Amino acid sequence: MIQMTFSFQEIEALVQGRFTHPHPFVRCKMEAVLLKAVRLRHQTICQLCGICGNTLRSYLAEYQSGGVAKLQELPFYRPVSQLEEHRELVQSELALHPVATIKQARNRIFELTGLKRGLTQVRAWLGRCRVKRRKVGMVPAKADPKKQAAYLAEKLEPRLQEAQAGQRLVYFVDAAHFVLQPFLGFLWSVKRVFIKAPSGRQRLNVLGALEAVSHRLITVSNESYITAISVCELLRLIAAEAAGRPVTIFLDNARYQHCALVESLALELNLELAFLPTYSPNLNLIERLWKFVKKQCLYSEYYADFAAFKTAILHCLAQTHQRYKTDLDTLLALRFQRFEEAQPMPA
């Protein structure tokens, strides 16, 4: 039997390492030595830790020779890629000039470092460098990030805080135009799936007002055009829902919304119209709802005629506050993308 004594500080270090060390092998060694410190028999320690007597004696010998630091050593061979010494160079190059495929990444790495690796090796190494295959986003060419940030801080966020406190209703208004055509999506399937392409170009226009906190949706729809008359109809519906409470409506600068007829009616109904900065779809909460509706009932779906197409969309919109409430409460969180955080594609 190996005779050992442990100080209070040594036991404390073993207890901490047993729970906090990132590697399970080290945690096992810490636990075995800790059980020895509380004077359990070797046979009992081996049973509790699932190790043999020789393994336990090797752990104890390590501890006697170097303490906790020695137990933390990992006697494993860990080969280091030659690419590691070029990590910063490759990361900075791919940050400035992203590539579309692993093959292009391999060629770029070879140009920079003179090291040629297989596609699987390159993919694994880029993953360790936190370089991932990411979907390219779209930023309106004329968007002004500074103007958006100022609008968000000075106008949008104060109104939303009042809405969350129950002092105001805040709506986001926008129109969506659903055209009868194939919406191709992704499916988990054994073989590639093809859907029929319906004929005709019939269109369902939906003008919607989404309440920022409750996510209740008010809509006006037609099959012709959205006009200022449509906007006025929507404003009357919003005023009826408000029942005298203060209301702010955020909307874009479409001509049929930014006109004298709409503004005079809003003044008459005591509705505050707040026009978003130009080219700012990222600040309009209802844009996310339109994408959700397309994903929910249009992508990878075939509708034989316009009537079925229209029914599916309107039914989905009618269920936003009931059937899809949980999904939308997450999707419609009051956090807005800022374009200055995006990585611009080089010209």
Assembly of the depicted chains: single chain
Give the end-to-end Cα distance, rounded to a whole number of Å: 73 Å
Element-by-element helix/strand order: HHHHHHHHEEEHEHEHHH
Helix content: 40-55%
User: How large, in whole angstroms, is the Cα Rg?
Assistant: 31 Å
User: Mean pLDDT across all residues, rounded?
Assistant: 90
Determine the CATH topology of the largest domain: Nucleotidyltransferase, domain 5
Major sheet: 5 strands, mixed
Q: What is the fourth-level CATH superfamily of the largest domain?
A: Ribonuclease H-like superfamily/Ribonuclease H
Strand content: 5-15%
- Tally of DSSP β-strands: 5
Shape: elongated
Lateral arrangement of strands in the main beta sheet: 3-2-1-4-5
Named CATH architecture of the largest domain? 2-Layer Sandwich
**Annotation field: number of helices:** 13
Give the low-pLDDT segments: none
**What is the total domain count?**
3
Topology of helices and strands:
Layout: H1 8-20, H2 24-37, H3 42-49, H4 53-71, H5 87-96, H6 102-113, H7 119-128, H8 145-164, E1 169-179, E2 203-211, E3 217-222, H9 228-242, E4 247-251, H10 260-268, E5 272-275, H11 286-297, H12 306-318, H13 325-331
Parallel strand pairs: 1-4, 4-5
Antiparallel strand pairs: 1-2, 2-3
